[in-house]
Specification:
This protein is α+β, with helices and mostly antiparallel strands. The protein has a single domain, classed as 3-Layer(aba) Sandwich (Aminopeptidase). About 25% of the residues lie in helices and about 25% in strands. The chain is built from 4 helices and 5 strands. A 5-stranded mixed β-sheet has the order 1-2-3-4-5, sandwiched between helices. Helix 3 links the parallel strand 4 and strand 5. It starts with a strand and ends in a 19-residue tail after the last helix.
Length: about 140
């Protein structure tokens, strides 16, 4: 396994194929996937010996106050090998994110226990997520 910080066109295709199998990303188009990667300040991928993307996470950040962790995903056949932990550790240790005061992410309630090992908590002082859904 190798760590990469920039995805090739083929690896963006791999990412899009990973997205197709998840309820939260299944409706993304290939164009959406390309735009998400391009619009993120930090992308971290894990590739196998064939240069195929097997794990991915991206971050949107101002490098000082906030960093939003998005799209943590691992190929189904590679789950249970600690790759999600590896990706989270790479984010937390990333030199460009050292000064960030708050890391945030979205997750289902059943995943809170996983993210709690990295210091994440649902206790955010009563703050609520508000969303405006556009076309």
């Amino acid at each position: 396994m190798e760590i990469i910080y920039q995805l090739s066109v083929n690896q963006i295709e791999d990412l899009h194929n990973l997205y197709k199998d998840e309820w939260w990303t299944a409706n993304r188009t290939f164009e959406d996937t390309k735009k998400c990667v391009k619009g993120s300040q930090i992308c971290i991928g894990l590739i196998d010996e064939n240069k195929t993307l097997i794990g991915f996470v991206r971050v949107i950040t101002d490098f000082t106050l906030k960093a939003l962790i998005l799209d943590l995903i691992v190929e189904k056949n590679c789950r249970g090998q600690g790759l999600s932990k590896k990706l989270m550790s790479l984010i937390k240790a990333h030199e460009d994110l050292i000064d960030v005061k708050h890391f945030e992410l979205y997750c289902l309630p059943e995943l809170e226990i996983f993210y709690s090992q990295f210091g994440f908590s649902a206790d955010v002082g009563g703050i609520r997520l508000l969303r405006n859904v556009s076309a």
